Amino acid sequence: MKNRLIVSLVIIAVLIVTGACSSIQVSDDLENKTWKLMSYGKEGSLQDVLDGTEITATFDGSKDEVHGSSGANTYSGNYRIDGNKLSILELAWTEMYRLDPPGVMEQEAKYLKLFKAVESFVIQDAKLKITAGEQVLIYYEENSGILQGTVTIGPITPVERPGEKPPMPPEVYEARKIMVYDRSGKKLIEQVDINSEGRYVAHLKPGTYTVDINHIGMDSSDDVPQQVEIQLGITTRLDIDIDTGIR
Fold first, then answer.
1. Local structure of 20: helix, strand or coil
2. Which of 1, 18, 48, 52 is the most buried (most CB within 10 A)?
């Protein structure tokens, strides 16, 4: 009986220590870094941050304070972390008005409303996802690099007249993904969406990656798979032409 009690106490102690270490690691991943907002809203229909604006969040672990830019103004407040749970306290911001680009004030209002309501967070592959109810805020780590490009897809009908390009249905882009693997091309790092204008962007830690597509139907491309080198603060461009095989 005594031995069982000792074993139970040891197990409980290990669980407590493991939980504490896990909490510390989660905090370390979030704090003392500058995160830049990439998109926000409901998953599946995220809005990109407006061109010409920058929204950031820096969590100061020494003071349990968060501060950043909300697009037109700066904000600050306190925060509390419990495992992967996150709450924002006493958030305040300046009250400057900005006209350019159009929509910047509306974007800021949406951001601050969401940021005040955050509930939890998760970090993976240099990206921070903060959840606020049914909506999310997606950030990337400032010390990352960018992979971006334009994707062209065709033909989309069996017969296309020379010089005439039929309109591209949104689902054609939605079905295709840019697949980012590790250097070996075996481990998937990120699956990147292509927007309705054929553009994609990925924020990645510096390193070497293999880029490919998800090969819908008879899709093929001479541009991928291809290895790319991502450097800190540098934008690497890779345009991809996808042949659907439709004839």
1. helix
2. 48
